[in-house]
Amino acid sequence: MLFLFCLSAGSAQAEPEYFTWIDAEGRIHNTLKSDADRKKNDRSKAGENERPSSSSSDDNYLTEDEFAAEQERLQREQPPFYTWIDAEGRLRYETIPQPSEEAQAAAADDVLVSDHTLLPGWRVSDAVRNSGCCGLYQAYFQEELKPFKPVLFSRVDLSAPLRTQTGERPAWYFRLSELSPDAEDPVLRLRLRDTDAPLALIALDAQLQPLHFIPQVERQLTDATWKAVAFYESLISIADKDVQAFILYFPAGAPARANLEVEYRP
């Protein structure tokens, strides 16, 4: 009986446990776990099965104000960025520029600051107006801009060149759709891409007589991003109600790849 008791007690003991590890030379080893290792493992498993009480769980949640403060901190310390590959094939990281508070407020109020304003009192002289400069190009004013519908002009080398005192220059021609008399001052948005060549503007009336002339349009450069190429933007405020058509041309010439996006906003 004593022999049977000892045998049963011995079989009831836990089997030895081992853990496997790999040394610096890549050889696999099996090492017997000590009693301390087993007790530590048992405590770890017991802790996994324990669930925190409702009071301790609530401590892990942020209040609405704390959450907003944390989001603000993350945006300040970890600004959004985009990755790109340069000409040498190296991976680059660049922070996405964030608009200032003033710019965001202006966008929210839909405020547009124009680069040029076409006013009735700033028209060209009568001699220029009656010179008959642009009537010869009437057949080329085929494109009519409608409000909020951007139009892309490209292949300026295939368009009819404009004759100037210094020779023929590449040009684009278009008319504006008619507006109601009580409409506010419309804005012409110009976005020039794939060239930094100077751009000139002639504004005309319905009979294609010149009203305004801008020898070099002012513009603002918008740098390239991960989703768009760089472009030059100009805003022309049309306060002269007689303006009905435009000629945009390059006084110093332009490459064939140049393209211009035009949007008419009443």
Structure in words:
By secondary structure, the chain is of the alpha+beta class. Helix content is 21%, strand content 30%. It is built from six helices and 17 strands. It has helices at 2-12, 35-49, 54-58, 64-77, 101-108, 126-129; strands spanning 18-22, 28-32, 81-85, 91-95, 116-118, 144-145, 151-153, 162-164, 167-169, 171-176, 187-193, 200-204, 210-214, 220-222, 231-238, 245-249, 259-265. The strands form five sheets. Strands 5, 7, 11, 14, 15 and 17 form a six-stranded mixed β-sheet that branches. A hairpin with a 5-residue loop joins strand 3 (81-85) and strand 4 (91-95). The longest helix is centred in the N-terminal third of the chain and has 15 residues, at 35-49. It is elongated, with a radius of gyration of 37 Å.
> What percent of residues are in strands?
25-35%
Distance between the termini: 107 Å
The number of strands is 17
Please report the number of helical segments. Answer: 6
Low-pLDDT parts are 1-9
